[in-house]
Specification:
single chain; disordered C terminus; 6-stranded antiparallel sheet; 6 strands; alpha+beta; globular; 3 helices
C-alpha cells in the first residue's frame, strides 16, 4: 500500500442546494488528508509548522468523474508523486465506498507544495525537512529521487 488514507462521511454542510458535493470541498479534503498524514506520520514536524515552517500550496487541481451526496462514505488516498529539493507533489484519489466493500473512483486530484520558512521580512524556500522525507519514504513511487537530486 503506497498511499495514506483519510475517510470522511459527507454531511449536508458539504453539499449545495442541488444535493451534491460542492467542488471546493474536494480541495479542502486534500488539505485535511495532508494534515492527518503529518499528524500520524510526522508529528515531530508539527512544532516546526507552529513556528516558522510553511507548506505553501503552489498548484491544486481536481477532475470529477461521478457525483457524491450526503451520507456517502468517501476515502481520500494520498500518494507521493514527486519529491524534489524544496517541493513535493501529491496525488489524491477520491473513492466512494459502498456497504459491500466496493469502491468507485469519483475524482482524482493533484497538489504541488513548496517548503518555505518565514524569514521575518518574507519567506524563503528551504529543503524538504528530513522528518517529512522519512515519513514520505514508504509512500514514494519507485524511482523517486531523494531531495537534492534535482532543483525545484
Amino acid at each position: 500500500m503506497n498511499y495514506f488514507e483519510y475517510r470522511h462521511i459527507v454531511g449536508f454542510e458539504d453539499t449545495n442546494l442541488v444535493g451534491n458535493v460542492y467542488y471546493t470541498h474536494y480541495l479542502r479534503w486534500q488539505g485535511r488528508c495532508r494534515e492527518m498524514f503529518l499528524r500520524r506520520h510526522a508529528p515531530e514536524l508539527l512544532a516546526e509548522l507552529r513556528e516558522d515552517l510553511r507548506l505553501f500550496t503552489l498548484n491544486v487541481d481536481c477532475q470529477f468523474y461521478a457525483e457524491i451526496t450526503a451520507f456517502d462514505e468517501i476515502c481520500v488516498r494520498m500518494r507521493l508523486i514527486d519529491l524534489a529539493q524544496t517541493q513535493l507533489e501529491f496525488g489524491f484519489d477520491y473513492l466512494r465506498l459502498d456497504s459491500g466493500g466496493g469502491e468507485t473512483l469519483v475524482a482524482r486530484g493533484r497538489q504541488r507544495v513548496a517548503c518555505v520558512r518565514d524569514a521575518g521580512t518574507g519567506t524563503a524556500p528551504v529543503r524538504v525537512p528530513g522528518a517529512l522525507t522519512r515519513a514520505l519514504a514508504p509512500f514514494a513511487p519507485s524511482g523517486t529521487e531523494p531531495p537534492g537530486g534535482r532543483a525545484s
